[in-house]
Every structure is written in structure tokens, then in C-alpha cells.
Amino acid sequence: MADTKGYESTTVQALRGTEDRTIAKMETAGWELVDRDRGTFRTTLTFRRPRPRKNLPAVAGLGFLLLVAVGGSTLGLLFGDDADTTAPPADAAASSPPAAVVTPAPPAAPAPSGTTWEETADGELAFGETARFRSTAGSSDIPLEITVGPPVVFTPSEAATVFDARDAFGGRPGSLHETTVSFTVTIRNLSTDQAFSPDFVFSDVAGTGADDQVSKVLEGDVVGMTGWPQEIPPGAAFTLEDGYSVQDATAIEYTLEIDGLAGRSFSFSR
């Protein structure tokens, strides 16, 4: 993110067909759309918003209140009670018991279902393990659980859609390689009152023996990242199949990126 002439800007990618939802979400957070670059499968959106300014009136008001408080204390010392202050002090222990020192407990972070809930610290997991992530994009605060199952080999038909996963602009036809696999991806929304929008959820694979020769495969239930719904409601989960064709899937590693550059990525492997 860079600051230019009093504005801060950010660039996000949205899947084709989800641009309006993405723009509405960013505008709700105070961003203004300034540019869009349409690709075949993704659109790059550029937003900006004014940098926050310091609230000078509030600072001045606080200084005035401090001045009044200090002045009042000084006047109290100068013109306070004229009572005799030469009498010996009473025994403090006899007059009253010492007051207990109370240390306020630090505020506890909200946790789903009243239990302790922490984000997954390690970004490297095994297939079938669950990653925990708190989405804070925009003004949201949504705890999520992400699970990716092991790769399952399948044979695509001639009707399958195959495109090059390494094409920077998206849409270039790809080739079927030695092995085609699908991954079962599940995202659970643990929030009780906020829906999660998976507009900025993307995937990739590595450890294929030839990572520069990878194709995305869409057919039937294997819908890929374009299959996410508009929203995952509070307390609900959504599962889809994500397909890749690679040279070798023996040591394949599947990476899921959530919330774009503002979020995190988790890698799953055997």
C-alpha cells in the first residue's frame, strides 16, 4: 500500500463476475474505485481513500481540561482549609485497614462457542488438518476454519475446461499432464452474526516435479475457486472441489490464500 498526495491506495483481485460485490465491500470500508483491469478470469481493482488526519480540536480540548485540573489543584493548595494541621497524625493502622490493591484482568479476546480459540501459527499443515484464521478484511472480525483433503486422482473427459495456471493474465488454454487430481476444500464460518465473503480466496500447487507446467481443470463437481458462493452465512460451512493437472502428484503441496495481501496463506501436504 502506498501513500500519494494525501491518499492511500490498495489493489485487489476479484474473480470475474464478483467485481460488483468486491467494489461494494470496499466502498463500505471507505475506499473509492479508481481503476479496473479486466482479465479473462480475474479483474484487478485499484482503490484509494484519504489518509486519516489527526483530530486537532480533540487534542486541544484535552489540553484545556488538563490545564483546568492542574489549576484547580493549585488553588486548592493555596486557599484550602485553614484548620490546624500541626496535630500529630493518627495511627494509620488503628484508624482503618489497608485498602486492597485490585488489578483489573486484561480483556479476553472473543472466542467461538465460549472456548479458547487461537489462530493457527504455523502455515504448514498436513492434509486433513484444520487451519484457524480470523478474517479482518474491511470492518469484519470473522473466525474461520479451513480444511483441505488429500489429492484424489480423476480422469477428466474431453468436455473438461483446462487452462494454464501459470498464465499471468488467465484464460490461456492449458494441457492435461500425467496426473489430474482434485482437492476437497472446506471453509467453516464460526461467526455468530457475520457472513464471510470468499471473494479473495485463491489456490495454487507446488512440488509437482515441474511447477511451471500446471493446469487448472474444471468439470462437473470440480468447480475450482470460481465455485465459491457470494457469502458463507454465520455458523455455516461450504465445500468445493478444486482440480489441477500436474506432472507428478506424489509430493504435491496445496496452498490456499485467504483475504489476499491483507490475509494469510496455508499450505497442505502429505
Main attributes of the structure:
alpha+beta; 14% helix; four-stranded antiparallel sheet; 270 residues; 3 helices; seven-stranded antiparallel sheet
Give your account of this protein's structure.
This is DUF4352 domain-containing protein. Keywords: Membrane, Transmembrane, Transmembrane helix. This protein has two domains: 49 residues, no CATH class; 152 residues, Immunoglobulin-like (Sandwich), CATH 2.60.40. It is an alpha+beta fold. The protein starts with a strand and ends with a strand. Strands 6, 7, 8, 9, 10, 12 and 13 form a seven-stranded antiparallel beta sheet that branches. The protein has a four-stranded antiparallel beta sheet with strand order 1-2-4-3, with helices on one face. The relative contact order is 0.15. The chain contains three helices and 15 strands.
